[in-house]
Amino acid sequence: MLGRDHEPSDIERRRTMEQSRALPTEVDLSRPSAARVYDYFLGGAHNFEIDRQLAQQIAAMTPNLADTMRAGRAFLRRAVAELTRLGVDQYLDIGSGIPTVGNVHEVAQGINPKARIVYVDIDPVAVAHSRSILEDNPLTAVIQADVRDPAHILSEARETGLLDFTKPIGVLLAGIVHFVPDSDDPDRLMAALRDAVPPGSYLVISHSTYEDQPQEMLDAQKLSARTATEITLRSKAQVSAYFGDWELLEPGVVHMPLWRPDSPDDVDDQPERFGAFGGVARKPAAG
């Protein structure tokens, strides 16, 4: 059975239909969207029947995928909550998708109502939906940009006027860097993002891996090669290197459920089954 965080209410469904009428005409609602399929897996209401049909087909082929997506979102929620409690009040969320159930602005602003968030995604469908959802939230902005072009991301983020690059920023890269192939030099891209923010900033990364995975999971990952968003699986050492010389928060780079779980009961006896590592690091003072 396809698992979800919750079933959207009739009110949420009606709100989604209202939002669909407000979307730009170039958003094709007759075709499924990867961003809306992801939203469905997370229990969001910003999806349509055609997206739900595709999600159910995917779930039948890879039953663990929905759990992996939810584990990734849960890791992101815990990381943002921890950083907000540590005083971070501005975030740059790259590869954000649709800001649905329990996303960054909900978590951060639930702790600090003045927290500011800039969402970044390359998918025009995700961007259009995000702008519609967040139009009444003046402390958020949505920009369309490619993770492979950090200069453009940083320029657009500055132009929003929401982020102060002289103060600590939480840079979030949850489930996005594995879409950057080695040929696009992810080490260089990550270094550019690290260099752009001041000391005291934090970097959050989750990334798919081949380590500790059964062969059937690796075979399933190979299916991504048939799509426009092929996933590059990387080792714990490779993921750790993306943090550069920043100071890793305990417990370091670990399988996602192991990163500061809300309760020991939230971690089952196979945390590696979610197929991804997560970690958070702080930029040290210069010198």
From TrEMBL:
InterPro entries: SAM-dependent_MTases_sf (IPR029063), SAM_dep_MeTrfase_SAV2177_type (IPR006764). Gene3D superfamilies: Vaccinia Virus protein VP39. Pfam families: Methyltransf_19. Residues 1-18 have a biased composition (Basic and acidic residues). It comes from the Bacteria. Keywords: Methyltransferase, Transferase. GO terms for molecular function: methyltransferase activity. CDD domains: AdoMet_MTases (cd02440). Residues 1-26, 262-287 are annotated as: Disordered. GO terms for biological process: methylation. This is S-adenosyl methyltransferase. It comes from Asanoa hainanensis.
